[in-house]
Every structure is written in structure tokens, then in C-alpha cells.
Design brief:
about 290 residues, alpha+beta, Alpha-Beta Plaits, 2 domains, four-stranded antiparallel β-sheet, cell membrane, cell cycle, transmembrane, FtsX_proteobact-type
Length: about 290
């Protein structure tokens, strides 16, 4: 606690150092939260039909039901959902913004659609393309659309963001080491005379090193707490605009923040970075404090 009181006796330098550490740690933490929320959003899209079959306009509901019943017996298919013309038009009307155009229609131009949900073992892209080619051979099918391609691209973007989080976290972690190391080096220079006196009375290197290590740990802990507060504040500020955007799509998407595990990793990691940075600074500069 004596080390903490010493840091609090100089609030401006301490606050500036803690703020820089906090911002450095908050950047990769914010990217992690972004990727985690996008992953949660994509989790609800995994249930999207892999293939949509658009039947010819002259296909009646009875014929579409017969085709759907036949497809449910295929070993590659887990589920088939039929979307009638009326249901498709109702969903289109529910989107809003097309009321005037829909009023000009004299008949329903939308076709019957069969949403195909394959079994897990037939979900890879290559097997989906094979299944789509097989489905296109049905006489009632006009054309087909694979609905998972965009989801696969989205998953690839998520993997890219995750890799970016690791790279950015590593680079900014090295930055935190430099910040703490430089701060501890200045502290050593300011206490040079005190250290020389301690060495004259027989203080060991471990005894002299200990308060600087404590200071590095406190810098790391305070910086980690600052990063957590910054990310939490950003989530609170963004929740309103995100909720309004989701409401336009008739949805509700609450943002999730840092979980307990992520907070623990940030705090423990920041303390370790502070300890390592201070250890390097002390070992490098402590020899220069020996009396002549």
C-alpha cells in the first residue's frame, strides 16, 4: 500500500501513465467485444436455409407440397419449408416502404419458394453445390440460390478480425511494456540518492527492486481497470443507436460486454505486463545507481 500511496501523491503523472496504458489495452479489448457481438449475431443466422428453390410461376401450391414431401425423403436434406406466394407477399409488405408499388399490382408476381435445410454432414460448400445441381434437375424448379455463401464470407471476416485482435494486442502489449519500463526508469532516477543510501547500509538488490515491481503491478492493474471502464462506457453509449437500428429491422439485439473471463484476462495480463516492464527497467538501470 505504501507504493500505491506514493503513486497517488503524484496524481497527474500517475493518471497520465494509467490513461495511456488503459487506452492501449482498451483498443484490442474493444475489437474483441466487436467480434464477440458479431459472432453472436451470426449465430442466429446459422439457421438460415442453405438453398432456396424458386419454382416456376405456374406451379400450384398442391404441386409445391408434393415436391416438398418428396424432398423431405432425400438423405441429404434435414428439413424443407414451403413459402407460398401469399406468405412471401405478406413478408415483403411487412418490410415497409413499398406500399405504393404493391398497390399497383393486379396479381401476386412472387413464386412459391422451397427453403432447403441440409443435414450437417452435407453442409460443406462443395456438397451444397452438388445438392444444388441435383435440385436444379427437378422439372418444377426455375432456379436456385445458395444462401450460405454470404454467411461463409462473414465468418471469414470474423476470423480476420480475431487475428487482428491478437496482432494488435501483441503490439500494444509491447507498448505497455515500454510505457511501464520508461516510467519506472524515471522513478529510479528520481530516487537515485535514496537507492545509493540503501545500498550503503546493506540493502539487497531484491529489497531495492521490490517497491518498483509493486509500482509496475499497480500501474498494470489501474491500466487494466481503466481499459475495462472505457470498453463498458463505449458499450453503454452504443447500445441506444444499436437498439434503434435493430428496431428498424424488427429485431432486438442487446450488446454484450466483457465477460468475467475476459475481464480476468485483461487484469491479469495488465498486471503481468506491468511487472515485466518494471523488472526489465530495474534490472537495466539498477547497476547505474551504485555509489562511486
Amino acid at each position: 500500500m505504501a507504493t500505491l500511496r506514493r503513486l497517488l501523491d503524484t496524481p497527474l503523472p500517475t493518471g497520465m501513465t494509467v490513461a495511456v496504458i488503459g487506452i492501449s489495452l482498451a483498443l484490442p479489448a474493444a475489437l474483441y467485444v466487436l467480434a464477440d457481438n458479431l459472432r453472436a449475431m451470426a449465430g442466429g443466422w446459422d439457421q438460415t436455409a442453405a438453398i432456396s428453390l424458386f419454382l416456376y410461376d405456374e406451379t400450384q401450391d398442391a404441386d409445391a407440397n408434393r415436391v416438398a414431401a418428396d424432398l423431405r425423403g432425400w438423405p441429404e436434406i434435414a428439413q424443407v419449408q414451403m413459402i407460398t406466394r401469399e406468405k412471401a407477399l405478406d413478408e415483403f409488405r411487412a418490410l415497409g416502404g413499398f406500399e405504393e408499388a404493391l398497390e399497383q399490382l393486379t396479381s401476386n408476381p412472387l413464386p412459391v419458394v422451397l427453403a432447403i435445410y441440409p443435414r450437417n454432414e452435407h453442409s460443406p460448400p462443395a456438397q451444397l453445390e452438388t445438392l444444388q445441381t441435383k435440385l436444379l434437375e427437378l422439372p418444377e424448379v426455375d432456379f436456385a440460390r445458395m444462401d450460405t455463401l454470404w454467411l461463409q464470407r462473414f465468418q471469414a471476416i470474423l476470423e480476420l478480425i480475431q487475428t487482428g485482435v491478437l496482432l494488435l494486442g501483441g503490439l500494444l502489449g509491447m507498448g505497455v511494456l515500454l510505457i511501464v519500463g520508461n516510467t519506472i526508469r524515471l522513478e529510479i532516477l528520481n530516487r537515485r540518492i535514496e537507492i545509493e543510501i540503501m545500498e550503503l547500509v546493506g540493502a539487497t538488490a531484491a529489497f531495492i527492486r521490490r517497491p518498483f515491481l509493486y509500482a509496475g503491478a499497480w500501474y498494470g492493474l489501474l491500466g487494466g481497470l481503466t481499459a475495462w471502464l472505457l470498453v463498458t462506457l463505449a458499450i453503454l453509449l452504443l447500445q441506444g443507436p444499436v437498439s434503434r437500428l435493430a428496431s428498424l429491422y424488427r429485431s432486438d439485439f442487446p450488446l454484450s460486454g466483457l465477460g468475467l473471463a475476459a475481464i480476468g484476462i485483461i487484469l491479469i495480463g495488465s498486471i503481468l505486463l506491468g511487472l515485466i516492464g518494471s523488472w526489465i527497467a530495474v534490472n537495466r538501470h539498477l547497476r547505474g545507481t551504485e555509489p562511486d
